[in-house]
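Researcher: Structure prediction, please.
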Amino acid sequence: MSFFTPGGTVTHIKLARCMRLLLLLFVVVLTGCAHEIADVRTAEVAPEETAILAPPGPAAGTVVRAERIRNDCIQGRRLICGKVLKIFPDGLVIDSGYTNLLRPPLTESWVVPGTVPADRNPAVLELNEPGTPSIGLVFLTDIPKRQPVKQFDYVILMGYPAGQYVYTPAPNIKKTIRKFSAGLETAVKLNLQLGK
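Model: Predicted structure follows.
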């Protein structure tokens, strides 16, 4: 498009520049609006809490309780890294807290031979955070079956709280120690049986 004026070419160039500038401004404004809409939609989609859907009837309370226990088990999980002191048909008594086992290549398997040099650091404390190493005597149940474990071997496994265990290290001596399960679902089931 061109106007018949003296210097028409200059007017055409000015008009083209003006159109480009308006088009650029239009795109910038449109992009800004789209960005604001996307922010609003994102905020609407992400709810702060998710509701636990339970079947109607008497089972509803059990499902809600099981989900609460499951969340508690996940928050209370501990890394069991220690020496196997005693082997029972339903689990292992472990002296946990051998944090120097947490080095490659030892972490490639859940069982570490008892011949590996390892010791406990007496200054290490157990933190109240999910996944931190457990310190002291624990009972670990629901262990993997794929690799045999012998007395005085070391184990490295995540354990979920599953109540307590009464351990008899010597005749007439009983100790109540923490019980963990290597399987989350087993821990939930054991806690449900305890009536938690």
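Model: The mean pLDDT is 81.
Researcher: Thanks, that helps.
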